């Protein structure tokens, strides 16, 4: 930038900021034009360049998704130059962060301005004394922030099923206030706290309390005013209080506005918001010195152990989701519109509750909940374990207090949460004395957090979400401390059966009759690419997830004492250590990580929405494969579901009537006769004169079991060995089909066994390991071991054959993921294997082995062109030299 341009830039910024100074309070984001450097700058080896970035920013958006174990956890540095007008000398300037993960040190012009510990709450530091102002010789001020997301045993969370992204991943602002202002040093709150101790349909009472500071050099007579404005901006009620304030004095105030007649209540259907505008006025001059505005929702609520939840005296079944704060390719550095869209998607699902888990999130989230009528809980990030130190306890309690002070005024918020699944992993298993001390320390910390919650906010409820280990949570006493009890239950997924869920609910109601019950988590991995017409537990298919949610929702709806159902999760989210079929992703969301709906989302829409609704299921599976009913009947009959809140649904396929089905729990089931090529499916429901309709276009590749069927010429086939599922590769548009045993005239494997893990605590369906070097993890995670042949009685021609291998057993021992509830048990022992592969008598792979060619847990593909003559078909032979031969997948494509 040349000198003239630089001068104009500085002049423009100074004039702009000077105009802003004329107002009582300025809050302006400074997200643009930062520079970032990753690493420890104190080390001589640090040679990384500063790169330009804008906030929000994380340094982990990419490395958490690669196949290298772990991700960068360490220092990240941010710097920015700001220019400050001379008029700010008479003001107080604060540097405000909505969040930075997870320890932040702030420097202004080389001087330390403050440190904040905790990655999920806001923080603010006064920086006036460090600034250069525009009337001095040096116009430029350098902001330098060091952020560190390293594991720290004294900073929660310690261990959890989500990625601990680093960076300044939320907005940063400069807040400028008069020397006389509402308390700006109260845990990054705005210093004003609103409560509604008495609300009914006929009247309401509103309390406004807080503190203000006279930072001016003289005595002042100051008037604190509180105006309640309605949604249209009209003055509704007002109260003023006069104070004598000495220089430097902080004064607490409390104003009570009683007998507000016929209040417009805040509700899920009608989230009516008043505003409380708080002002400080100089009594002598009439000048307004500071203004703060807060939302006000007039409502009352209660939980009952027998009858559930009530809002404004009316029974409401709370049904919604939990939410993590990351997004595909962005990590957790999201712009506000993306945050707000998540709440809108929840509302469009028909949900009325959001568990903001496992930590406080961007202010835009709870603000959107206020506006849209979504009830919420907020949670301190104590997950899966704690450290037995005073420093850890201090940091935890500080974060809990920050969470409460910063979010106190939101009418959508009805409960404070802390300590998620704290007994999932209990250390000192071999030392009973140490173990008991650990548990006592945990209970003591829980009581302290409970005491903080009730002292700060006696009107709201408290909750601890527990995993399903009933006996230990009750024995330790974590079910007795909070006002509510939450259970994270995965019966029928990680362990047990679907029928066990209802029995667990009844057990709670019987044995804890005075504790309202909330299901704070439930769900399954749902890979949108995987499908099965006979789904089983832990197969990750959309169809099993559908069965799971249908079973769980029915049990909860049948029991009035179940106050809340919180699906885990709204959207898929990053969990770097996870493998499964979608490595580094927890796939339990009813939306994908980029917020595309799965069938689970459609199921809840069909059950929760009041407006007429209809959607065809699994529309994402728009290229399908299947076998003709017979050699002459060139159709393939496959099931298809339609989600609707109407009583009956009619279906047309390619313009022809395909039947009408009644919906049960929002689901209508059909069998569709697919033909080769485009299949246009139209579903329709009409009730009370209205009509809802949906269309899906599905390309179908019809196969024949007789590969020489002249009515259906063979072109290609993709087979996943050791598998019973269909896998749709969205990138190529190919559908992989399950294996079958060879029959003369057809195709399939000869010999061998389906690979299963030794772990027997859940269905052994291939492996859950991340297979490196591929996006086709579901194909490589299953295999047939000891296979002798794979045969296809294909017609004469030239074929391209691709063989897929992966050694699924590694000599490297890895610990179980503690958050995979119920996981554990014996593991497979690595053994040397070596084998040859021949195609139609020609050896194409010699001595492939898991010491060289087949590196453990890494995908290997080998493609070969093979001519078929004289009706000889295709025979792939496997000859074991050491151990057993394996095959994970095979693709056969006719090229001539």
Strand order of the largest sheet: 22-23-24-25-26-27-28-30
Total strand segments: 54
User: How much helix, percentage-wise, in residues?
Assistant: 10-25%
> DSSP strand (E) fraction?
35-45%
Q: Could you describe the largest sheet, including whether it forms a barrel?
A: 8 strands, parallel, barrel
Mean of all residue-level pLDDT scores = 93
**Helix count, DSSP H or I runs of 4 or more residues:** 10
Task: Give the structural class.
Answer: alpha+beta
Q: Which regions have little confidence, pLDDT < 50, spanning 5+ residues?
A: 1-22
| Spatial shape | globular
Estimated radius of gyration:
31 Å
Distance between the termini: 63 Å
Please supply descriptive tags for the structure shown above.
896 residues, alpha+beta, 10 helices, 54 strands
Briefly, what is this?
The chain is 15% helix and 37% strand.
Description:
With 896 residues, the chain is an alpha+beta fold. It is built from ten helices and 54 strands. It has an eight-stranded parallel β-barrel with strand order 22-23-24-25-26-27-28-30, surrounded by five helices. A seven-stranded mixed sheet has the order 29-42-43-41-54-48-51. The longest helix is centred in the middle third of the chain and has 25 residues. It is globular and about 105 Å long. The protein starts with a helix and ends with a strand.
Detail the topology: elements first, then pairings.
Blueprint: H1 3-21, E1 25-29, E2 34-38, E3 51-53, E4 75-83, E5 91-97, E6 103-108, E7 111-117, E8 123-126, E9 140-148, E10 172-178, E11 180-182, E12 192-199, E13 203-214, E14 220-229, E15 235-245, E16 250-261, E17 274-282, E18 288-296, E19 301-304, E20 308-311, E21 314-316, E22 318-323, H2 336-349, E23 353-356, H3 363-372, E24 375-379, H4 390-407, E25 413-417, H5 432-456, E26 461-467, H6 470-476, E27 484-488, H7 499-511, E28 517-521, E29 530-531, H8 542-557, E30 562-567, E31 573-574, E32 585-586, H9 599-608, E33 614-616, E34 623-627, E35 636-644, E36 648-653, E37 656-662, E38 667-674, E39 677-687, E40 690-703, E41 716-720, E42 726-729, E43 734-738, E44 747-750, E45 753-754, H10 777-780, E46 784-785, E47 789-792, E48 797-805, E49 834-839, E50 842-849, E51 860-868, E52 874-882, E53 886-887, E54 889-894
Parallel strand pairs: 22-23, 22-30, 23-24, 24-25, 25-26, 26-27, 27-28, 28-30, 34-40, 41-43
Antiparallel strand pairs: 1-10, 2-3, 2-4, 4-9, 5-8, 5-10, 6-7, 6-9, 11-13, 12-13, 13-16, 14-15, 14-17, 17-18, 19-20, 20-21, 29-42, 31-32, 33-35, 35-38, 36-37, 36-39, 39-40, 41-54, 42-43, 44-47, 45-46, 46-53, 47-52, 48-51, 48-54, 49-50, 49-52
